[in-house]
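Notebook B, p. 112. Complex prediction, attempt 2.
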Amino acid sequence: MPLLRVNNLILHFRGVTALSDVSFEVRRGALHAVIGPNGAGKTSLLNCISGVYRPQRGSVEFEGKDVTRLSPASRTRMGVARTFQNIALFRGMTVLDNLLIGRHTHQKEGLLAGGIYYGPARREEIANREVVEDIIDFLEIQHIRKKVVGTLAYGLQKRVELARALALEPKLLLLDEPMAGMNAEEKEDMARFILDINEDRGTTMIMIEHDMGVVMDVSHRVTVLSFGEKIADGTPQEVQGDRAVQEAYLGQAQ
Amino acid sequence: MRCGDFRQSYAEDMSLFESPLPRVLLAGLLVFLLVLPGFASTYWLDVLSRIFIAIIAATGLNVVTGYTGLISLGTAAFLAVGGFATAAMAGKAGLPFVVVIPLSGLLTALVGLVFGIPSLRLKGLYLAVATLAAHYIVEFIVTHWDAMTGGVNGISVPPAHFAGLALSDDRSMYYLILPVMVGLLFFTKNLFRTKVGKAFVAIRDQDISAEVMGVDVFRYKLLSFAVSSFIIGVAGSLLAYQARLISPENFPITLAIDYLGMVIIGGLGSILGSIFGAIFITLLPEMLRLATDALGSYWPSLMVIVAPIKTGVFGLVVVLFLIFEPDGMAARWNHIKAYWKLYPFSY
């Protein structure tokens, strides 16, 4: 059984078609890339999977359960995490607090225990702090753990956002352009982290990325979208050789 | 002499105090406040009690506006609900204050919960207008429900009794208000280093992302309104016990604006900010009055313009703070603290 199955997804905004009849599968443990020219509907697809958009037709199945009608928060509780194209961190909070929000769904202690603090709430905070510190070590952001996120450089913010998504301990991680706006060195670091997460932690990932070099190097499977339609699906080699893909990117041969 | 931060466990790192010194200073301040009634005049005890009540209410407002980012103009209304609930429960039903104060808070929390519902859809100025409507609804009810609230004439509140003693003078009220304030401040401070408080701040900073991180945004917005109104309701209850006679005139919309001024001047999203703001705004008229009293003998016409000066100075101070320290007095305090932290070896 695939971890995620998207069936005949149709999404439009007042006549503008964002997705028309898109279907694909992501198997457990895969690093699955979604590529396509600008406006192809990649982010819309991710939004449908994470629950931010609700498609007009079609369904999203996660671990065999239909989640099409579920809210983003309840999908998160089932194990879907994501990062955003334009960083959506909590800018006024420290890196540590951002990551601890990632532990929200794993924490039980409520209002009263939290206000009293000593006892169960503190034990829980310390236990989750340990999980968060592991992720901080994993992504090498120890030196900024007490910094307020809004003051950090762009590349670091991207890494913190990845760390926050990891703090959820997701089964499926959705990455929306994790390397956008980065220089070559930062891209290499990010690619290394993504591969490490996939291999060491076994997290299944769907990644939208424009850098073809990275996509072809790291991903196991690639889905290509163009104008809201799926035009190809396969291994990086298959997709590279596909005629429709070449036409979508380069235009038709005369 | 300190030469750096050295912490060896996460518990230590999450402590409220950076080092033993602030812990000792805070304990010292508490002891000072406890023995103060021994030598302070009743006038200053009354001023201090009013400051404590303002600190409680400002902290409550800060929970919803400063920490959760939902602007509320309902503070005066929530104070009124707490106050009139106390008048009804202590006066008509004759319940003791240990029951009345928390019940007044809970009732206000319920009212806050109802008026927090628009926050599902509304943000910023629109929410401010919705809470303004809440204010006028409450004002209308307390003015017209004569049987319960005494209408425009107001209603008297019997003094709180403790072990057979009536807490009717300024000194005993001071000892009632101080522990309630300290307890609520610690509760709120702790709340923001655990799950629920962090969820509030996450909603303020990025509500979509909070939702995607699994925070039930609507539930937590309502919870924030409830916690905030509970705290403000307790302040209203204490206010009723202190004033002994309350009427709708005690809770005008300008009071709600004063409280917004307090949290902005003190610092949004900071407990310390609520404390600074409440002290500053409560002391401002007292200081102006002392100054005019002192100068009045030389310049009698000053007395006539005192009232307009108060509002003028209040407005001027808010504007100056917005320009020079938009993050409030608490941020300035933290700058000063950071500078002296490792003095004299700050490298």
